[in-house]
Amino acid sequence: MSLIGQDSREAIVERFGRHVSSGKADFFRQVGIDFCFGRREGVWVWDLDGQRRLIDCHCNGGVFNLGHRHPRVVAALRRGLDELDIGNHHLVSEHRSLLAERLAALCPGDLNRVVFGVGGGEAIDLAIKLARGHTRRSRILSARGGFHGHTGLALATGDEEYRGPFEPLSPGFRQVPFGDLAALEAAMDEETAAVILETIPATLGIAVPPEGYLAGVRALCDAWGALMIADEVQSGLGRTGYPFYAQALGLRPDLISVGKALGGCVPMGAALVSERVAQSVSPGDHGSTYGGNLLGTRAAAFVL
Asked: Does 64 map to a domain?
C-alpha cells in the first residue's frame, strides 16, 4: 500500500488543523490553496490525487537543491539503513569525519573544523556560541529584515515579528539596516563579538548585497576584533553556482553556517570554523545528539 493518499484531502486538512496548526489550515482555506503533497520526483510535485503536477520553485527554502528524492541520495540512505543508525555523538566517527573533510575542502580560507547540528537554526546558534566563546564578548549584530532561524540565539537576531511572541530572549543582540556600512560602523564597539549576515538575505527579498558591502563588513570586523559569520543556510551548496556565495565575492568569513540542502532530505546542519576559533572552546562545550548522525552524513556525502 502506498504511503500517499491513505486519507482524503479534507480529512488531512481537518486533522492538521486540529493537531498541528489551525492557523495554517484556516489560512490555506481562505486563500483557496488546497494542494497536498503527493508524489514527488526531481523538480516535480503532484497533488494528493495525482491529477495536478507543479514545478516546486520553493524547494522548501533550499532543501531540495538536487530535487526531490534524488536517486543517489535515496540509494545512499537505503544502503545506510542496511548497516548504520544515527551513531553516538560522543564518539569518534568514520562517516562524520569523512563528511567534515569534504566540507572543509569546499570552504574558503582556513575553515577546516566542522561542528554538526540538526538544521540551519542550530548551525546559527552554534556559530554565535563559538563567536562568543572565542571573543569573550556578548554583542551580536545582524541585519534588519534578515532571518536566521527560529531557535533561541538565531531567533534573537531576527525582526520583531518573529521575536515578539517569545520575548524576553537572550540579551546582547542589535539590528542595523542591510547594506549600510555607516550604520554598522556606528553600532560596533569593543563588546561586539560578531556580525552575522546572510550573504543573500532571502526573507529580505533575495537581496544581492551592494558591491563592496560584505568586504566592508569584513574590514570592520577586523578593525574591531569581531568575527564575521556568513549564514549560507539558503544561499550555500550550489544555489549561486558556488559552494558558498562568499567564494564568489572572494570573502573569507570566520564562520559559515550551513543547513537545508546539506542533508539532501535528512535534517543536517553545521558550523564551519577555523582551528583558531574552534580551539577557544572545549570539546564538551556543545553537544547535539542527532548532529552529524550517520544516516545524514551518508546522504550529505552524496550531496557534496
From this structure: no
Instruction: Evaluate if residue 6 carries a pLDDT over 90.
Output: no
Annotated catalytic residue within 64, 116, 147, 178: 147
Decide if 42 is inside a domain: yes
CA pair distance 117, 123, nearest whole angstrom: 6
Catalytic residue among 64, 173, 231, 254: 231
Look up residue 115 and give its three cell numbers.
561542528
What tens digit of pLDDT does each residue of 266-295 get? 999 999 999 999 988 877 778 899 999 999
Tell me, what CATH number does 272's domain have? 3.40.640.10
The three three-digit cell numbers of residue 114, written as one number: 566542522
Does the annotation mark 27 as catalytic?
no
Element housing 37 (H / E): strand 37-41
Rg of the Cα atoms in the chain: 20
Task: Identify the domain containing residue 28 by its residue range.
Answer: 9-57
User: d(Cα 116, Cα 136) in Å, to the nearest integer?
Assistant: 22
Is residue 65 one of the residues assigned to a domain? no
Determine phi and psi for 53, rounding to 5 degrees.
Answer: -120, 130
Q: How many domains does the chain have?
A: 2
Q: What is the pTM of this model?
A: 0.94
Residues 24 and 21: their CA atoms lie apart, in Å, by 5
Computed from CA positions of residues 80, 81, 83, 85, in that sequence, does the dihedral angle turn out positive or negative?
positive
- Identify the band that residue 1 occupies on the pLDDT scale cut at 50, 70 and 90: confident
Closest C-alpha to 142, from 107, 193, 205: 193
Q: How many helices (H) and strands (E) does the chain have?
A: 13, 10
147 is catalytic: yes
Residues 20 and 83 in one domain: no
Query: Could you confirm whether 231 is annotated as catalytic?
Result: yes
